[in-house]
UniProtKB/TrEMBL annotation:
Region (Disordered): 1-26
Superkingdom as given in the UniProt entry: Eukaryota
Name of the featured protein: Chloroplastic
Organism (species): Durusdinium trenchii
Higher taxonomy: Eukaryota, Sar, Alveolata, Dinophyceae, Suessiales
Length: 49
């Protein structure tokens, strides 16, 4: 439990309302499909060598 008996959300409390990653920022700006495509591109690039 977090402060004052509240459950912790798992997010960094210093980052109030801002994106926690570039992927989340992309998802908020361009949508879930664009973020998913970007994630697949990154994962594919990691496994290609």
């Amino acid at each position: 439990m977090g402060r004052r008996g509240q459950k912790s959300s798992g997010h960094d409390e210093r980052n109030k309302g801002g994106p926690v990653s570039q992927l989340e920022d992309l998802m908020r700006r361009r949508g879930v499909d664009a973020a998913w495509d970007a994630l697949e591109d990154v994962m594919g690039a990691e496994h290609s060598y």
